[in-house]
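Summary for the funding panel

The consortium committed to producing paired sequence-structure records for every protein in the target list. Below we show the first two records in order, beginning with the earlier of the two.
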Amino acid sequence: MTEVANDKTFFGRMVSRFSRGKVEDGEVGPDSSGRDESTGESDDPIPELSVMASGCLGLINFPREPGRMTIERLEDLHPALIEGLAAHPGVGFVLINSEKHGAIAVGANGTNFLEMDLIEGEDPLETFGPNTKAHVLRTHSFPHCPDIMVNSTYWHETDEVAAFEELVGSHGGLGGLQSFPFVLHPVDLEWPEEGIIGAENIYHLFKDWTGQIAPEPQSSAVDSPGSSTRTSTAGEVSAT
């Protein structure tokens, strides 16, 4: 916390601001005013907040809240948090659920109501490509989708994303070269015209292809001691 608070970035200034009164000899620590800020829940093994980073994807959860947090509930607990995140120059959009509108993606200059096919202001997903909405809705449908999903900014001019962890490359979210995976396959195996969204659909396609190229089960006479039996050679590779 001390290192971050001394950083001359926007986030560093925010940490420094909120850690005032907790700095002693230049180190961020317990409240130097002597006030008791304990909530009475210090023995609770469940944390109040959980934040994880995966490349350019941020996952924020409030484990003590039952079910998935909605933007309406979040506004009661932490007003303006979503707007603050979305306004950060390193954040492209924030995905959160709404009791009234379902999945919504909030950007600095607009909101995409994904399940209502409605956009207010500028679409925060536009810069990430034509399949972005389908990918985000797929993530939204996961039973363990985080309360708040944060996707970093993508800069077209440099083809780079703002990574949330110190990596040479990035992964997990949308934007940049990671948005262009490929499958190398024989030309006689047809690729779906509608394209592929999601790893599970790649699996189903591979299973279909396997069914097309797998040899049909064959039967052959095989001599065995004392009798003649017929056994299946399905799955064996024929020399012919």
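The next record, for a separate protein in the list, is shown here:
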Amino acid sequence: MSSERIHGFSRAGLTFEVTDEGPLDGPVVVLLHGFPAHRGAWRLVTPFLTAAGIRTLAPNQRGYSPGAAPLERSRYRGNAIALDVLALLDAAGVRRAHVVGHDWGGFVAWRLASRAPGRLSGVTVLSTPHPSALLPSSAGPGQLVRLSYMGFFQLPCLPEAVLRPALSGLLMRSGLPHPFAEDYATFMSTGTTLRCALNWYRGMWLPSARTTRIGAALVPTTYVWGSRDQALGRRAAEGTADHVDAPYRFVELDENHWLPERAPERVAAEIIRGAVRSPHRTTPHSA
């Protein structure tokens, strides 16, 4: 493991920003944000982790770092974004880490748990069910309506024009606390950041040399879901257990989609439990 802090790393001509905190000799947790957040999404969670002796690496992911913001949607395939995380581990001199992902960051965590289990000690996924559980549930009218915005995001230019002036209000109405809503909206208003962030929706499922299907998670997994999540429903959440071939815990919170921002202490507790003490398979429970 590196004995020095890292503030960034490079891969494939792109340069990423990273916040590196906590003891350098502690177990490593990688924190992957979702849309339309950035690495600051973890600012209430990180103090609990570092106090527990954990080193945290929180990158601004592809599209969110100014030096890693290609405009082409083809540069946002799932395989490429997962490789970005492995490059972060290499830059930090870390052989294995516990990966935490929320929203799109959770999608990346699922991919790594299936494709690169040798580099992970485990994963904690917030909100996002396993993709193989989400797809069947999308056939139902309830989940289909919840995810209809994804179809709108495929359009060129129009989503950016609609979202940019309205984003802060939309986020607050979805239950995101005001300071975070203002922060994310301001961040998205800079240059081409919003276009690049939306490219996750436009490029993640594009075919590549490797299959886009994500197999079962092969590392110890904790999945934390909010029962009031506006976008991701119960059927997919409970079905995720069928796609984990490793020790598994399902934690249901009385919360909405914005778990790192609204429930940081509980999120941190689940990360610590997964990163420091191996989770065990249990029946779903609420908290």
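Regarding this second record: The beta strands are 8-11, 14-21, 28-32, 55-59, 97-102, 120-126, 221-226, 248-253, 285-286. The domain at 8-286 is CATH 3.40.50.1820 (Rossmann fold).
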